[in-house]
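Running co-folding for pyridoxal-5'-phosphate.
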Amino acid sequence: MTSLRAAPVTPVIPRSEALFADAQALLPGGVNSPVRAFRGVGGTPRFIARGNGAYMEDVDGHVYLDLVFSWGPLILGHAAPRVVQAITDAAQRGTSYGAPCELEVELARRVVATFPALEMVRFVNSGTEATMSALRLARAATGRSLIVKFDGCYHGHADALLAAAGSGVATLGLPDSPGVSPAVVADTLVVGYNDVEAVEQLFAARGDQIAAVIVEPVAGNMGVVPPVPGFLEALRALTTKHGALLIFDEVMTGWRAHAQGAQVRYGIAPDLTCLGKVIGGGLPAAAYGGRAEYMKQVAPAGKMYQAGTLAGNPLAMAAGIATLDELATPGLWARAERWAAEATRVLAASAAARGIPLTINRVGTMFTAFFTGDPVTDYVTAKRADRDRYARFFHQMLAEGVYLAPSAFEAAFTSVLHDEAALLLWRRAVDASLDRLGEG
Ligand SMILES: *Cc1c(COP(=O)(O)O)cnc(C)c1O
């Protein structure tokens, strides 16, 4: 395949429009995951024909520099040769066995070696399954019911965790979701992100009933919001003191907030960790894991039931192994982080030069630019960002050949293939888009 190069494009997208019209009759909202439908920014979603490296091409032939990367997984870029080869090789040996295979052991070995707090791991198919299972395990291990989560953190779409969820739900302006019965979320307590005092009060009042605290150690689903100093430390201390488990949902932050995970970046060992996205290298794989004393309670080693027909399937395992092995190349991950640092510097300078208030939060290879002059430290402050402004910025950037998340409350993700040429394109796109933002 020839490599793709992005260039300014005309917003003429007849093929995407035709496909979207068909799709809306067949798929709810025309998509299989809400944020893809562009409702947060308006307009017609681009149907993608192919991806190559840092770029992807839509069905109308427009090429974009990608900063979504399937919402995080593709840190090596689209169609990374090593990953494609690994998947091809695996597929030729069969796509699923319903029996153990060596690749599961190999990926587990790498995951356990990556995270000091992980001694054992169970593979599942999605981040949603990982968090849902980790909660079940925490409840099984403690014999308690209550779960503490944070406003604006998203942990997948399991019923118990669809209380004050961020990103897709927030963007659509739905407080929760119909279909989640009140009883199912009655045991879910929601507090503000970075609000240590609120967590302390909760534990003081109900500490002996709390099974677990689940947190995105760097929030990514209300846009990127880093933990304030002391926040994760306080969660660790409080859960330990009260006999509750600390669950880090690193589905997004794993191999993103840091070459390993947020738990390594901040030096906090959770009891359980949820992984997804990068771990599957673009195929459906996710995992939960932790200390052996807990993981040995999962069936069939223990009594907590959890299973999966396609869990640990050889294609996903092969893609994950290839991704992690490639990412272990010295200096490679740092490229993705360096580009993110450069890109945010360019963006901040361009906005400042035009007097446009912008708050940029970046951790590792993920960042969000909030159109607000105030610091963004939790969901309340994130929501102060100007969504209309973001929507206009998004469409300008798209027209300049840069594909950002179609929502003001999402992260941008970089890859190891973002290079000088990509930075040049980014700089031009940012300057042109912010210029026109001022006019509008
Ligand atoms: C994406 C995400 C999930 C859900 O993962 P799916 O694979 O989409 O089910 C859970 N937690 C976090 C932090 C995520 O970013």
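Result summary
Residues 126-128, 131, 154-156, 216, 220-221, 249, 251-252, 276, 286 surround pyridoxal-5'-phosphate (CB under 6 Å).
The chain is about 40% helix and 15% strand.
Job closed.
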